[in-house]
User: Fold Ion-translocating oxidoreductase complex subunit C from Neobittarella massiliensis.
Amino acid sequence: MFSFGKNTFKRTRGGVTPGHFKNTRDCATEQLPIPDTVRIPMAQHIGAPCQPTVKVGDTVAVGTVIGLGEGFMTAPIHASVSGKVKAIEDFIMPTSARCKAVVIAADKLQTPDESVTPPDVHDFESFIAAVKQSGLVGLGGAGFPTWIKLSPKNLDQVDTLIINGAECEPYLTSDYRECLESPDTVIEGVQLVKKYLNLQHCYIGIEKNKPEAIAILKEKVQGLDGIEIKELATRYPQGAEKVIISEITGRRVPMGKLPADVGVVVLNITSTSFIARYLRTGMPLVAKRVTVDGDCVKNPGNWLVPIGTAIADVAEACGGCDKDPAKILLGGPMMGTCVYADSYPVAKNTNGLLFFSADAAGQQRVLACMKCGRCASVCPMGLMPPQIYEANKVKDIAELTRLQVNACMECGCCSYICPSKRLVTQSMREAKATLRAAAAKKQ
Ligand code: SF4
Ligand code: SF4
Assistant:
């Protein structure tokens, strides 16, 4: 049962069971050829965008800092290729965020920046400073700066670390490949986080549809104190932060609160091993493993892609498309963002690139709501989308607040299950925007 302040929603679990479509599970990670140019956006994390720290004509190397932010919620941005800064241009992210983008013409030498050396880490403060310098943001897709996540104000009340290896979105196998290809590095990362945050218990949560990942990590944690593999039911959105906390610890994160408020820090599994690699090498976050799939792609697979590489360049490296994609998704089909041009670049938190034909994308006619209640029955947060939709139509702020629309995590379960093919998640987003606008007006 999720409890949000005064209102209490009686939920057992919610969620849906879409097809897995993990077609690329056996595709080992391949290095994408270095593209001629990369376009690196300055908005790759939650919070204000960074500002470029380089100018046109500057020479950069792999790992050179090219963007820094002034706000608290920020993470530096680094060059993913060596070469020359060709342009600094205005850019609109697929999420509509506006920012600058640094365009680099690659020299294909991949010369590392001279600052790329293992950081001096010996205590909590130096550990957090290193994670900040690494530019790491949540690699599961959220883009939350990891150094902030690892340094909550009430760290002394946190007792549990959850490593999120659920990867419940259909198609995506990026985290799964990390478990198979780098299990020792995953465990090294877990031990580093446990050590510097002084956490006694760690659970690595993985869905049961990944038995090979479960087996290899179970083998690696044998004999290690305080690290346990938790096999999770295969059910979307098992990897959502609030859901995985509830499934593993039974603790419920109230609306507007953070995992640390219930004594938990949650970290994506690829983020965890990235920390271990960064402490060993000092190479910041300049490349991301991306699952490339969909019925249009000739050769689906998992690719290590320099950040800023255009979608078109990734598609070409996979042999191109054998039919015209009608829909390109950054991320999975449940929470991914649809993009309108294949010139968009891969960002730090891009974990999938899906190319679907019109047939596969399955555009269907939207019908009237038949008040069947299925959307409410699958909502992991116990929300009532039809009532929220009606309240938003008349901009009833009090009712939207009472219905707690801000608890919506935009997981997409309601749209998935709707027999009338209504854009239910979209209407939740609109209702949240209504509340945000009302709050801004009040201020
Ligand atoms: S998108 Fe929001 S309303 Fe819909 S199921 Fe997910 S949490 Fe519930
Ligand atoms: S699932 Fe669709 S048709 Fe059923 S109540 Fe929700 S919005 Fe209406």
